Amino acid sequence: MVSPVRAFLKVVLLVLAALALPAALGAPTAVHAVTGLNAPRTDAVSPTPAPVAYDPTRPTVAVVVGDAGAVASDVLAPYEILAGTGAFNVYTVAPASHPVPLTGGLDLVPDLTFAGLEKLLGGPADLVVVPAMPDVGRPTTKPVTAWLTTQADGGSVILSVCNGAAVVASAGLLDGHRATAHWLRLDEWAGTYPGVDWVAGTRYVDDGAVISTAGVLSGIDGTLHAVQRLVGEAAAVRAARAIGWPYEASSGPPRMARTRLAPSDAVVALHSAFGWDRPRIGVQLTDGVGEVELASVFDTYAQSLAADTVAVGDGPVTSRHGLTFVPRTASVAGLDRLVLPGTTDHPTVPGIDAVHPHERPGFAYDAVLQDLARTTDVATARWTAKVLEYPVDGLPLAGPSWPWALTLRPLALGVLGVLVALGARGLVRRRTRTPRGGP
After folding, report:
1. Is the pTM of this model over 0.90?
2. How many CB atoms lie under 10 A from the CB of residue 186?
3. The DJ-1/PfpI domain covers which part of the protein (predicted)?
């Protein structure tokens, strides 16, 4: 008779065997998928950015990016909103002048270095926008945090977007302030930076010298609030209308229920760990493309972890409001699909499935999320919207409900692990029972 302890240990060993293969094969894939979101270029291409104009009668905004890059939407949505008002000098700035990777491999050439901005202004910017950066809290962000401290000491208003709040907090500039950040890491920041009064359930917090926003597209609300605060309500309303975003100028920070992980969010673990054959999507860069349009494509597909994106083009391009981007390839060879963001004219590319998500007016992310649902599944599109902090209850999403074929991969690996364990156990038992000198 098998004792209860031995039976329990047998079950434990079988469970471990079922988990071993999925963990061994899935963990490296997941790490590669996440770290690859801001993978740097492997060449030495570093073109000169488009010349910047400066109007001393206008306030100046500096959108900072670190050497390791930043989240595309955190940088490009505030940039387009602020630049589109015509009321500011708006520059992207970084410690050095080389291209920096935004989410999904969109390489941005900063307008100015920190030293270049100082030379241009002779002092601090009026508003500094701080996006989420992949190396927050690491020594590599010290040039950024030191520069932020100088700007804040000079009187700059700081606008952090998403987990850019942690970058600001790591500089010590949020101690004693109320602030918010992305829902997925808010508890982590509360433990790491206890001197900050972290707030959940709101899209932005205005605490005077610092305005902080919740996750990703909550940065749009915070940026529009900054426009209203610095320029006026009418300018904020026009800026919101220009990108198709609802904005109530007089209602204050929009409230929202605190977001938490749900069982259906396991879909991202499936894509990140077992999406070995995830499609490779080329994103065609063209002159005049809108910054929000670019961000909607790169961030949506990349944040889903269900596809890899690569910027395609013949050479550097200049966006609608003057940013310089550098493609990583001129060839569509090896791509599964090609996405052509924006409403500008695009060259015809024969031999590949091409998608034009922005042919119809509306908020740029809507059509991209719908395409993600159609080509991947609805659960993935909903997870991605949740990460972007974009409510999609009123957005029709049509496609497969769940990635069932992908779900079978860890299950099959688990069954294989159990069979191997049982086979090994049987072999050991046979050998221990075979008498010495026997066959």
Report:
1. yes
2. 21
3. 61-221
